[in-house]
């Protein structure tokens, strides 16, 4: 544990000296918290179940470092839903009590959300958050990092944090019990464009910022499409040039042979 704390302090010092590392550049290593500084903007039902969870109250209470949490995610997380599969019944509930609203009968809260909130209580640094979203050992470590950004980072910073990962091809299955595989890029796009996430809600992005994000997504896709068209035209032109040159080469070869 002392070694982990020493590593964290070293990481923090390095990031401060560098002026910030990773997703949002040229900013200090201390992360801001947007919204509620106690709840992380989590749904009340989800947070209540986290705080009452034996896993959180007993096991995670002994964990004090970022690196220990990463080990827990690697060993115990296999989906990114707030509830364990089949533990929460929402049939027959409508409106504010419906499943999408995340209000109503509780269930067994997932290890993923317990660990997400544990990271929040540790007040992780900017460099540590970058370590989560760029981790090479598990897509679920990355997924929890992206959810951390969506739940408690300022909406004005979301595009800068998430845009570099919109085309990330690594695969992950966020659904409890599997059945909804997607790429990290698809996860990131959902975080930027949707409120609902498997039975809970992300905090609402202010309308002006959401409009900017939507426009930037359209612009990005348009630019990518234009690049594909340009590349295709270049390939077609190159093949046509090679086709035209081939008969000339054959004619020259036959002429030399006849001599």
From TrEMBL:
Q: Which Pfam families match?
A: PRP38
Q: Where in the cell is it found?
A: Nucleus
Residue span of region Disordered = 213-259
Q: Which UniProt keywords apply?
A: mRNA processing, mRNA splicing, Nucleus, Spliceosome
What is the top-level taxon of the source organism?
Eukaryota
UniProt KW Nucleus keyword:
yes
Output the Gene Ontology cellular-component terms: spliceosomal complex
GO terms in the biological process aspect are: mRNA splicing, via spliceosome
> What is known about what this protein does?
Required for pre-mRNA splicing.
Family according to the record: Belongs to the PRP38 family.
Protein's name according to its UniProt entry = Pre-mRNA-splicing factor 38
Q: Which organism is it from?
A: Ramazzottius varieornatus
């Amino acid at each position: 544990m002392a070694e982990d704390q020493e590593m964290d302090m070293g990481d923090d010092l390095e990031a401060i000296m560098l002026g910030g590392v990773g997703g949002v550049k040229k900013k200090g290593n201390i992360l801001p918290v947007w919204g509620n500084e106690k709840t992380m903007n989590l749904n009340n039902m989800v947070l209540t179940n986290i705080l009452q969870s034996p896993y959180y109250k007993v096991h995670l209470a002994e964990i004090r470092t970022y690196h220990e949490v990463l080990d827990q995610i690697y060993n115990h997380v296999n989906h990114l839903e707030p509830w364990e599969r089949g533990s929460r019944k929402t049939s027959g509930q409508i409106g504010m009590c419906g499943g999408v609203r995340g209000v109503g009968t509780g269930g067994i809260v997932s290890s993923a959300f317990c660990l997400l909130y544990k990271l929040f209580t540790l007040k992780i640094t900017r460099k540590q958050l970058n370590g989560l979203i760029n981790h090479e050992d598990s897509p679920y470590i990355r997924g929890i990092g992206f959810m951390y950004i969506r739940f408690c980072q300022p909406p004005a910073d979301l595009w800068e944090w998430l845009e570099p990962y919109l085309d990330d091809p690594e695969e992950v299955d966020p659904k409890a019990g599997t059945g909804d595989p997607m790429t990290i890029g698809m996860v990131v796009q959902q975080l930027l464009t949707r409120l609902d996430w498997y039975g809970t809600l992300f905090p609402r992005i202010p309308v002006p910022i959401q409009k900017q994000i939507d426009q930037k997504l359209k612009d990005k896709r348009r630019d990518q499409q234009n690049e594909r068209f340009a590349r295709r035209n270049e390939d077609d032109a190159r093949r046509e040039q090679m086709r035209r040159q081939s008969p000339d080469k054959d004619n020259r070869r036959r002429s030399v042979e006849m001599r």
